[in-house]
């Protein structure tokens, strides 16, 4: 008999049942992030109709002009998590410092990092954008969380995922037992399981990189990109959307590699370790892929600060391993 559709809620309960020691805290955090995603998705889908487009006339810690939707999405993520008593602190691309749960709410044993709206430059031109999140068990003592809780290696993540607001809205996450994808059915307002057990192809035919930076790349990077472009056994195509979540999601499903390397102007590249590279590196490893900064695996980097940047090369095993060979002068 054909099994009915599995909602995210049902999937989370069935996942939780597999771990008798599970307390349900984690399930609630993921459900709340999914709730925030639905609210953000609603605004994204009508952004052109209300005054949520355009600039917020404020700047974040990166000196980036904040879009109204950056600020809105950030607020919705905080509101979804601050009162449930499962989280003791949060860190966001859009907030300089650690976001503490207000005293009036109970604290929990997890901390959550997030990029509330990824691909902000694409909001006003109706191109796919996303939200990225990661969940850690707190390691600090005392009532409130602190920066130390966020400076854990990505290897310590207990869960991570992203939302992509594209032709449909999808919620993709892992808690260490494989990667599952859910598609929002707006008619019922539920995320329904559409991509069980996502695995990234061993090698692909897509490479994603902003070639406008070519003149600033290290010679080894240029050689790698030329090698990929001229590969005999298969013809690659270039796809670059400028929204990390969208570029990553396409490569996760179809295979391929996304690269935002360091260059002569930005030695550590542009992407942030805590709430962009680590959560996606966690997902890609769970799906059988790899993520590196060119020297070590992303998940093994010891973070030093909340907003530190890292070069990010992420995707199919073959493309990432080949990149590392070029960086080590072995290819
Ligand atoms: P955010 O909008 O969260 O600041 O992230 C933007 C990032 C990422 O989404 C994308 O891959 C990258 O910026 C694109 O950078 P370039 O425009 O320099 O290629
Ligand atoms: Mn930004
Ligand atoms: Mn981003
Ligand atoms: Mn962002």
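Sequence proposed for the structure above (331 residues):
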């Amino acid at each position: 008999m054909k099994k009915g559709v599995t909602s995210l809620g049902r999937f989370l309960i069935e996942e939780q049942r597999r771990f008798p020691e599970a307390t349900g805290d984690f399930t609630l955090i993921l459900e709340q992030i999914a709730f925030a995603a639905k609210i953000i998705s609603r605004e994204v889908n009508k952004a052109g109709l209300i005054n949520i487009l355009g600039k917020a006339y404020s700047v974040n810690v990166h000196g980036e002009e904040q879009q109204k939707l950056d600020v809105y999405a950030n607020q919705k993520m905080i509101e979804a998590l601050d009162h449930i008593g499962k989280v003791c602190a949060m860190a966001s691309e859009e907030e300089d410092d650690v976001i503490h749960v207000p005293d009036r709410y109970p604290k929990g044993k997890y901390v959550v990092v997030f990029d509330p709206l990824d691909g902000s430059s694409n909001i006003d031109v109706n191109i796919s954008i996303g939200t990225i999140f990661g969940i850690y068990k707190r390691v600090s003592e005392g009532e409130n969380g602190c920066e130390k809780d966020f400076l854990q290696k990505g290897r310590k993540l207990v869960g991570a995922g992203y939302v992509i607001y594209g032709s449909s809205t999808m919620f993709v996450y892992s808690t260490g037992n494989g990667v599952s994808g859910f598609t929002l059915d707006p008619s019922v307002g539920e995320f329904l399981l559409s991509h069980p057990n996502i695995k990234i192809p061993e090698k692909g035919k897509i490479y994603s990189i902003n070639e406008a930076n070519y003149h600033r790349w290290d010679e080894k990077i240029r050689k790698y990109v030329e090698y990929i472009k001229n590969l005999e056994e298969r013809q690659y195509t270039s796809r670059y959307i400028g929204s990390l979540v969208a570029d990553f999601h396409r490569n996760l499903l179809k295979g391929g590699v996304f690269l935002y390397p360091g260059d002569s102007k930005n030695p550590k590249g542009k992407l942030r370790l805590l709430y962009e590279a680590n959560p996606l590196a966690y997902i890609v490893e769970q799906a059988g892929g790899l993520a590196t900064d060119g020297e070590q695996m992303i998940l093994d980097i010891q973070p030093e600060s909340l907003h530190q940047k890292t070069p990010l090369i992420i995707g199919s095993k073959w493309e990432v391993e080949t990149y590392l060979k070029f960086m080590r002068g072995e290819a």
